[in-house]
Automatic annotation (TrEMBL):
UniProt keyword terms in alphabetical order: Hydrolase, Signal
Record's protein name: Carbohydrate esterase family 16 protein
Domain of life: Eukaryota
GO molecular function: hydrolase activity, acting on ester bonds
Range of residues in the leader sequence: 1-17
One Pfam family it belongs to: Lipase_GDSL
Database matches in InterPro entries: GDSL (IPR001087), GDSL_Est/Lipase (IPR051058), SGNH_hydro_sf (IPR036514)
Metal-binding listed as a keyword: no
Organism of origin: Rhodocollybia butyracea
Amino acid sequence: MSTSFLLFFALAGSVVAQNFWFSFGDSYTQTGFLDNEALPSVANPFGNPPFPGFTATGGPNWIDFDTTTHNNSLVFTYNYAFGGATIDANLVAPFEPTVLSVTDQVNQFLQTVASKPASTPWTSENSLFSIWIGINDLGNSYFLSDNRTSFDTTLLDAEFALVQQLVSTHSSLFDVGARNFLFLNVPPTDRSPLMLAEPASAQAMLKANILDFNSQLVEFAENFKASNAGVTTLIWDSNTAFNTILDDPTAFGFIDAVSFGTGPGFFWINTLHTTSPANVFWAEGVADVLEGTIF
């Protein structure tokens, strides 16, 4: 899955299948898409802003790479992800009240292109819906409750209620019809420079919370698939991907597992986000998971 969509489109006289990617998440995914500006097109498969958009990586991020390089079709990506997002601001407040939660992001989709307008002729067969969320939900709350398992269940109940809205009837006017889902679990942010500055006890607490959330995510995805005929659910294990590099960073071309900066060789660009070179690995991992799908 390494052929650029541009290459496919450049084939003279060829008919190129259009696929649609609707993405929800936080700063690990954001590109700054606004649904009231230019929509995805051949000129810019993200619509707006200009590629690679406003990312937290210092360059293209994983969804940038997967949309433009690691695929076998022309992909139009509607990336609703918003920096700082949580699943639901009523459950875990974001760092600012203006942050759009995944609840807000899904509502944006439902209120605009969910009805499959002529501008966005997606179908159940040619579309992918992805969610990478939980980093801020856990990072902003892991220290607040002793019963983390119960609260993680509450968070995932809220997330999958939104996912169900993407599948089922939105109103008396139309059935939404999403069928292909990709979930990305929470990476080991307990190993981020931000958390390494905290006591070991805090790191251990966040790590345990992440492992519980990720374990439940697998169960929720399996149950969701079983309860919805025709639905496909895929999971990319970001936690393992991050740990593989952090355990042996020099083998992957990085200086170490703890430094951060914008120069060559850094894994972290700041205390919480990974660099664009690291995002190449995330993009490749996601592409592997999507191998054999419509993408």
